[in-house]
Amino acid sequence: MKNPISAVFVPTPEGAAGGTPDLTHTQVPNASVSIRLQGVGKSFAHGRRQAQRLTVLEDINLEVRTGEFVCLLGPSGCGKSTVLNLLAGFDSPDHGTISLDGQAIRGPDPRRGMVFQQPTLFPWLTVLDNVAFGPRMAGRDARDYLPEARRLLRQVGLERYAEHYPWQLSGGMRQRVALARAWLPGPQVLLMDEPFGALDAQTRLVMQELLNRIWAETGTTIVFVTHDVDEALFLGDRIVMMSAHPGRVREIIEVPFARPRTPDALLADPAYAPAKRRILQILREESGHLLEEINP
Ligand SMILES: Nc1ncnc2c1ncn2[C@@H]1O[C@H](COP(=O)(O)OP(=O)(O)O)[C@@H](O)[C@H]1O
Ligand SMILES: [Mg+2]
């Protein structure tokens, strides 16, 4: 394996010894690994008559610990959604292997829940019925899942909206329904693709705090795609920085802030600015590559 888990950058407060990133190679202990991607490559047909192949992911190596919150960050089009789709089992890699608890991922499974940017609720179903859709379709007894569906609605602050319809809710409320729905089967892993990207800044903060709280209570492993640097620093244990064209793991940033986190505490933390600056620098470099492709 060329790149066991990529380089890890641990941000240090400004003025700390050296000033240069501390690049070390670390290996996640085997017992705690939940998700493992080894040498993963993926290409798609493109161009005239789909005759060419576009390599979207190349040699992706990544290990995610059980209960860890990992953010994927990188320029648009670098393959973040493709990584999530492979983890969800919606698609399969051309090269390499992807496993969850040592078992190869071969297709979708309710143990790996997915939350998209658009909540994709059924407009003809009530909030409660949307949350309970999965187990009902699986033919389970309503007594098994309805109490849990109601408890989750309470947890996301929508208890009073159980009998409302999606069109009667705001965007943030709809996304909270999607969150409750994803959590109902008690997923081992939650895959989130820019879930708060379409929300206004204020609502996004509320959703981030809510997600942080549920994650801490449930111990679910989360892989969260975002292009929002502050969001990644607020939520993540580690931030996987991806490079573009082809998508690779460029660097992994350990987020140094203690939990529980608040936006205020983060801003006051001396490690915040250096970490944010480092991430922005990488994003700028990677976007530069994109610009070169547009203007060769
Ligand atoms: N099913 C597909 N068929 C062809 N090309 C695809 C498909 N899915 C993604 N791509 C291409 O792969 C690249 C990465 O896409 P994506 O994973 O959506 O990036 P990101 O989520 O980082 O913005 C893009 O160039 C996109 O056009
Ligand atoms: Mg995407």
UniProtKB/TrEMBL annotation:
Parts forming coiled coils: none
Signal peptide coordinates: none
Keyword line: ATP-binding, Cell membrane, Membrane, Nucleotide-binding, Transport
Organism the protein comes from: Corticimicrobacter populi
Protein name per the record: ABC transporter ATP-binding protein
Family: Belongs to the ABC transporter superfamily.
Domain ABC transporter: 35-269
GO molecular function terms noted in the UniProt entry: ATP binding; ATP hydrolysis activity
Pfam families linked: ABC_tran
